[in-house]
Amino acid sequence: MALTRYPPVGFHFKVEFGGLEPGTEIGFQTVSGLNGTVPNSETHQEGGENRFIHRLPAVPTFDNLVLKRGMLVNSKLIDWFKDAIERFKFTPRNITVTLLNEKHEPLQSWIFINAWPTKWSIEGFDAENNGIMVDNVEFSYQYFVREEMPAT
What we know:
This protein has a single domain, classed as Roll (Pnp Oxidase, Chain A), CATH 2.30.110. Helix content is 7%, strand content 41%. It contains one helix and eleven strands; from the N terminus they run βββββββαββββ. The strands form three sheets. Strands 1, 2, 7, 8, 9, 10 and 11 form a seven-stranded antiparallel β-sheet that branches.
């Protein structure tokens, strides 16, 4: 009998920050920006070859990583954001986003190398809405690595 595999759900994940103690504020509402693109190719014309031009891939580019969560006060993460945005003091950290299965085991991870906060916004105040305050944080990074976990 063949094993049927279903696509994993996108709502069971955790986020970890290198350089902060394990388990520090891993709860986020959304994670987006997991995109890497090889932009338009570069062209190179070879001397003496008139039939075609060599097309070579350019260096990949990456979208900003965007994390969204309920606003917290007195947190180590907020201190890191404040250092970057308010004090122009940057401490790059690796950020790991891990997709989990129903047993809370890792299925796949994305590791964002040398990330630093580039934008920090708080969703507006609204007296007619009973929602919570939400932090949106964007990170630039050098590149990301996608790691699959061994099947269990």
